[in-house]
Amino acid sequence: MWTVTAVFTCALELLGRPQASAPRVELIERVPPGISALATGYVLLTEKRIVLITSTPAFVQARHASERCGDVEAIREIAGVFVHEEWHLTHGVDEAGAYDAQMIALLQTGANADSRLFHKIKQTKLAVLAGAKRKASTGVTAGMQATDERSQGTP
C-alpha cells in the first residue's frame, strides 16, 4: 500500500509540478467539524494552506494500486482537487473559477470531457453554484457555513 504522501506526489507529477512549487499542503484522514462532510479538500486562507482529505475514494484507490501512481484516474481526481483548492489560495472563495480550474486540470491531465469524473465535477459545480444563488436570493442557508478562514471545500 502506498502512503498518502506518495499518492499526493503522484498527483503533482501528473500535473507536471515540482513539489517545491506547491503551496503548503496538509494531508488529513477525516473532515473536521465545521467543514462539509462531502468535502475532499479545503483551504485555510489566513494560513495559506491547502488541506486534502485522504479517506476519500480517490486516495483509497490510489493507495491500493499495484504500482506507484498506477491508478491514473484516482490520481487525476486528487490532482483536480488540489488545483481547485490552489485556485482558492490565489483568487479567494469564488467557486465558479475554482471548478473551472479543476475541470481544465482534468482535461490537461488526460481526462475526456465525457468521462465520469469530468461529468461529476461539472454536476457538482452546477449544484454548488445553484445553492449559492438560492442562498443569495433568500438569505438563508441550509448547510454548514465556513468560518472566515476556510472555504467550504471541494465535494
Brief synopsis:
Helix content is 49%, strand content 9%. The chain has one domain: Zincin-like, CATH 3.30.2010. It is globular.
Please identify the structural class as seen in this structure.
mainly alpha
What count of helical segments does DSSP give? 5
CATH level 3 topology:
Zincin-like
The Rg value, from CA coordinates, equals 15 Å
Question: What is the total number of structural domains?
Answer: 1
* pLDDT averaged residue by residue: 90
Helix content: 40-55%
Task: Outline the secondary-structure elements.
Layout: H1 4-15, E1 24-28, E2 41-44, E3 49-53, H2 57-63, H3 72-91, H4 95-108, H5 116-138
Parallel strand pairs: 1-3
Antiparallel strand pairs: 2-3
Helix pairs in contact: 1-3, 2-3, 3-4, 4-5
